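We now fix the convention by which a protein and its fold are recorded. Think of the row as the fold of the chain written in a discrete alphabet. Here is one such record, which you should read through line by line.
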Amino acid sequence: MEKALRGWLGIAMTSLAACVALGQTTFDAIVDGGKAAELVPISLSGYTGEVEATLRFDLEVAGFTVVSPDRASLVLVGKNGSPVEGTLQDKGRRTLFARAYPGGNARLQAHALADDVVTAGIPGQKGIARTKIAFKLEPGRRGARGDVISEIYLSDYDGANPFQLTQDGTINRSPAWQPGLKTLYYTSFKPGRPCIFSHDLASGARSPVSNYNGMNDGAALSPDGSRIALVLSRSGSPDIWVGSVNGSGMRQVTKTREAESSPCWSPDGRMLCFASSEGGGSRLMVVDANGGTPKALATGGIRGATEPDWSPDGRWIAFTRMGRGENFEVYRVPAGGGEAVALGAGEDPSWAPNSRTLAVVRRKGGGRKLSLLDAFTKQAKDLKTISGSCGQPSWAR
């Protein structure tokens, strides 16, 4: 297990610098007054097979549409080769860059090329093709206690190279990355009740972080990686608590009789957004991470708001709207509150480092599949099929 994890992590670390260096970006150049961005037309020439498919997927996720050369604003010409090569030109045939991509396999080289195209082709935006996601997966089996088994998996952002991190044969859920792609936090029922663990991806070692009686769930790491917000029921009803990443110094932030869930951090680490059942139903609240009076986040009258996630650039909060039955939709709303915009069917939204793309779960054919959703064009692309029902994606930032 540890050897396999180190192998997966070795591949992941080849793109770690790119993942960490993405930082916080804005989209003023392509989003005007909150209106949906337009897709950027680009043509591809000289690529075939896996390289062409990888480039097409990466670019379409990033906000491009692949068209014929006569309709393109940008033209990418190159070859598969070893290494992959690419020359990007604008409509006037001015060369923006010409590069070769040695190292790694053809797919990784294509990802690197796609990220460079995004950086050059969309002002203010950087590529996400070499980032990673974590998620839970239900393989369709039951454990010794009759619970539906769910394990934690890792994969490339497009669903390739899936790796099973846990093998507990019980419920594992709510994965959350510590910034820097070194440690993953999640909830496991292996001790017989929901407890939160940290899992070092370099060594494979995991340690208990929160194992109080009752609920321990919903871990969310602060942007600087030093604090953890989570949901504990140690005082009665489920409330939001904050402490050090090792679980020490826990301090209660909310104190209500109703249930709170799904905490997420503002990019500056000062505020938390979470879902609350206070007042009936479910709505979004914001509170100072050091404590204070929670305030309702205006969502334009949308009811049943839950599962918030704060964009890395601080401008948006994505959330799930719970409807009747299996009618779930993903929305985005300004971080300060306002009119919420429906983005399409889905749930469990998680922002990419580019503050544009969301990993979401979409219900299809009786199961749940992972998809990538553009929060401004509303374009969605499903990830490579993984056997089982997926949920709760968490994007490494």
Remarks:
- Residues 155 and 187 are 19 Å apart (CA to CA).
